[in-house]
From TrEMBL:
A Gene Ontology biological process term: chemotaxis
Residue ranges of every copy of the Methyl-accepting transducer domain listed in the record: 201-422
Protein's name according to its UniProt entry: Chemotaxis protein
InterPro entries given in the database record: Chemoreceptor_zinc-bind_dom, Chemotax_Me-accpt_rcpt, Globin-like_sf, Globin-sensor_dom, Globin/Proto, MCPsignal_dom, Protoglobin_sensor_dom
Native species: Lysinibacillus odysseyi 34hs-1 = NBRC 100172
C-alpha cells in the first residue's frame, strides 16, 4: 500500500538548497537538473508514481483523448495524421519513459523528437502546454487519492511528478523555441544570403557608367551624323536639280545628234553617188588613154608609110617629086599627130593619175564617212539608251533626294530622342546607385532585426549558431563589397580581429570545447585568419585610393571566404549527423 499514517507537515521541505544535481547529463540538460535539484533519491519517488499511472492507465488515456477530441483543432490533427488508438499507445510509451528512462541525452532527444513531430504537423506550443495541464488534472487527483493517508509521501510524489513534467515541458518548449529560432535564423539568413548575392550592383553600376559614356558619345556622333545628313540632303537636292537640267540638255543634244546623224546619212548616200561617178570617170579616162594609144599607133604607122613613100619618091626621081612632097607632108602630119597624141596622152595619164587618186580618196572618204555614219548611229543608239537610263536614274535621284530630306528629319528626331536617352541614362545610373544603397540598407536593417531578436528571445542550437556565423561571414564580406560601391565607410579598426568576430568567439569558446577534435574544425582557423587579413588590406587599399588593388583583394576575399563557408557547412553536417543518431 502507498498510504501510511499522516504526520505533521510543519517541518516538511521539498525545496533543496543544493546547487547541483547528482544526476550526470549533458550541459544544457544538467542546468535544468541542477536548477530543480532533482536527485537520484527524489528520482526514486517516481516508482510510486509509476504504480499510480499503471493502475489508472485506461482511465487517464480515455479521458485525456476524449477531452482532446472535443477541441476542434486537436480533433482535426488527430484524424488527419493518426488515430486515437495509435496515439494512446504512443502516449503510454512516453509516460512510461518518464518513470523508467534514465535522465540522460537520450531522454532529452526523445522529448525533442516529440516536439519536432508535433511542430511539423502544426501543433502549437501553447496546445502542448494545455495538453500537459489536462494530464495534470487527471493524474494529480489520483496521486492525492492514493496518498491521502501519508501527506509526506503525497508531497514527495506530487513534487517529483511536477519536476519530471516541468523538465518535459522545458525540453519541449525549449525545442519549440529552438525550432522557431532556427526558422528565424535560417529564414532571415536565407533572405540575407540572397541579399548579399545581389552583387550585380557593382557590375550594373559599371555597366551604367560605360553605357552613359557610350550613349553620350552616340549622341554626339548622332548630332554630327544629323548635320552630315542635312548637308548630304542639301547636296543631293542640288545634284538632283543640276542632274535634271543636264538631262534636259542631254535630251536637246540627242535631238541635235539625231539631226546630224540624218545629215551624215544623206551625205553618205551622196558620197556613194560621187564615188560611183568618179569610178565612171576613171573608166572613161582609161578608154580615152586607150584611144590615144591607138591614134599614136596609127600616127607611127602613117609616119612609117610616109617615110617609105619618101624613099620610093626619091627612087622615082623627078617623077616622084610631087609624091615626095605629099609624103613629106603626110610624114609631118603624122609627126604632128604623134606629138599631139603624146601630149594628149601625157595629159590623159596625168588626168588618169589624178582621177585614180580622186577615186581612191573618194572611196576612202566614202568608206570613212560610211563607217562614221554607222558609228554615229551606234553612238546615238547608245546615248539614247543611256539617256533613257539616266532619265530613270534622274527620277530615282529625285526620289533619293526626297528620301534623304525625310531621313534628315528622322535623324533630327533621333538626335532629339537620343538626348532624352542620354538624360535617362544619367537618371538610370542614379536610380541604380540609390537601389544598391537601399538594398544594402535593407540588409543592415534585416541583420539588426535578426541580431536583436535572436539575442533576446531564442535558444539557438549549435547547427544554427554555425548558420549564424555563415550569415555573419557573408554580411561581413558584403560590407566590404559595399565599401567599394561607396555605400559603406570602414576603417582599419572596424575590421577588428579574427577572435572578436562572432565566428571567432564561438571558435575559441564553445566551438573548441565541443568540436575541437574534429579535423574540419582545425582546418577552419587558417582561412578564418586569412579572411580578416585580406579584408584589412582591402579596406586600407580602398581608403588610400587604390581601387584596383581593393578590387583584387575583394576577389581574393571571395575565394577564401568560400573556403570558410565550406568548412562551416561541413562542420554543420557533422553536428546534424550526431543529432540524427539520437533522434532515431
Amino acid at each position: 500500500m502507498l498510504g501510511r499514517k499522516s504526520k505533521n507537515l510543519e517541518n516538511y521541505e521539498y525545496f533543496s538548497k543544493a546547487a547541483f544535481s547528482d544526476i550526470e547529463a549533458n550541459e544544457r540538460f544538467k542546468e535544468k537538473l541542477d536548477f530543480l535539484s532533482l536527485s537520484q533519491i527524489r528520482r526514486e519517488s517516481v516508482n510510486d508514481l509509476k504504480e499510480i499511472y499503471v493502475q489508472n492507465r485506461d482511465y487517464i488515456l480515455s479521458n485525456f483523448y476524449s477531452r482532446l477530441l472535443e477541441i476542434p483543432e486537436f480533433n482535426q490533427i488527430i484524424n488527419t495524421y493518426s488515430s486515437v488508438e495509435r496515439l494512446k499507445k504512443t502516449f503510454d510509451r512516453h509516460f512510461m519513459s518518464l518513470f523508467e528512462d534514465e535522465l540522460n541525452i537520450n531522454y532529452v532527444f526523445t522529448r525533442r523528437r516529440i516536439a519536432h513531430t508535433h511542430a511539423r504537423i502544426g501543433v502549437l506550443p501553447n496546445w502542448m502546454l494545455s495538453a500537459y495541464t489536462l494530464i495534470n488534472q487527471l493524474i494529480v487527483p489520483l496521486i492525492v487519492k492514493a496518498c491521502q493517508r501519508d501527506h509526506y509521501k503525497m508531497l514527495d510524489i506530487l513534487l517529483a511528478y511536477d519536476s519530471l513534467v516541468t523538465i518535459d515541458q522545458q525540453i519541449i518548449v525549449e525545442t519549440y523555441i529552438e525550432i522557431q529560432g532556427g526558422s528565424v535564423v535560417n529564414g532571415l539568413g536565407e533572405i540575407i544570403q540572397y541579399n548579399v548575392q545581389l552583387d550585380q550592383i557593382k557590375d550594373l553600376l559599371q555597366f551604367q557608367e560605360v553605357q552613359q559614356k557610350d550613349v553620350l558619345q552616340a549622341s554626339e556622333l548622332m548630332e554630327q551624323l544629323d548635320t552630315s545628313i542635312e548637308e548630304i540632303a542639301a547636296s543631293i537636292g542640288d545634284i538632283s536639280q543640276h542632274t535634271q537640267i543636264s538631262l534636259e540638255e542631254l535630251n536637246s543634244d540627242l535631238s541635235s545628234l539625231q539631226h546630224v546623224t540624218v545629215i551624215l546619212q544623206n551625205t553618205d548616200e551622196g558620197q556613194q553617188k560621187v564615188q560611183q561617178d568618179v569610178a565612171h570617170l576613171v573608166e572613161r579616162v582609161n578608154s580615152v588613154a586607150k584611144l590615144m594609144e591607138l591614134i599614136k599607133g596609127i600616127a607611127d604607122q602613117t609616119n612609117l608609110l610616109a617615110l617609105n613613100a619618101s624613099i620610093e619618091a626619091a627612087r622615082a626621081g623627078e617623077a616622084g617629086k610631087g609624091f615626095a612632097i605629099v609624103a613629106e607632108e603626110v610624114r609631118k602630119l603624122a609627126d604632128g599627130t604623134k606629138k599631139s597624141v603624146e601630149s594628149i596622152n601625157t595629159d590623159i595619164q596625168e588626168l588618169l593619175q589624178l582621177t585614180n587618186s580622186i577615186n581612191q580618196l573618194t572611196k576612202n572618204s566614202a568608206q570613212a564617212l560610211h563607217e562614221g555614219v554607222e558609228d554615229a548611229m551606234q553612238v546615238y543608239s547608245t546615248l539614247a539608251e543611256l539617256n533613257k537610263t539616266l532619265q530613270t536614274q534622274g527620277a530615282r535621284f529625285e526620289q533619293i533626294a526626297l528620301t534623304t530630306r525625310q531621313q534628315a528629319v528622322s535623324a533630327s528626331e533621333i538626335t532629339k530622342r537620343n538626348k532624352n536617352i542620354a538624360q535617362s541614362t544619367v537618371r538610370s545610373k542614379q536610380i541604380v546607385f540609390e537601389t544598391g544603397e537601399a538594398i544594402y540598407k535593407l540588409s543592415k536593417m534585416i541583420d539588426e532585426y535578426r541580431s536583436t531578436t535572436i539575442s533576446k528571445n531564442f535558444i539557438i542550437s549549435q547547427e544554427d549558431i554555425i548558420e549564424l556565423t555563415i550569415t555573419d561571414h557573408l554580411l561581413w564580406r558584403w560590407k566590404i563589397y559595399n565599401l567599394m560601391l561607396g555605400f559603406e565607410k570602414m576603417s582599419e579598426q572596424d575590421v577588428g580581429s579574427p577572435q572578436e568576430s562572432r565566428l571567432g568567439q564561438w571558435y575559441y569558446g564553445k566551438g573548441r570545447e565541443l568540436f575541437g577534435g574534429e579535423r574540419v574544425f582545425k582546418e577552419l582557423e587558417k582561412p578564418h585568419f586569412e579572411v580578416h587579413e585580406i579584408a584589412l588590406n582591402a579596406v586600407n587599399a580602398y581608403n588610400s585610393g587604390d581601387k584596383d588593388a581593393a578590387e583584387q583583394y575583394l576577389q581574393k576575399l571571395a575565394e577564401v571566404s568560400f573556403t570558410v563557408i565550406e568548412k562551416l557547412q561541413e562542420l554543420q553536417k557533422i553536428i546534424l549527423h550526431q543529432k540524427e543518431t539520437h533522434m532515431k
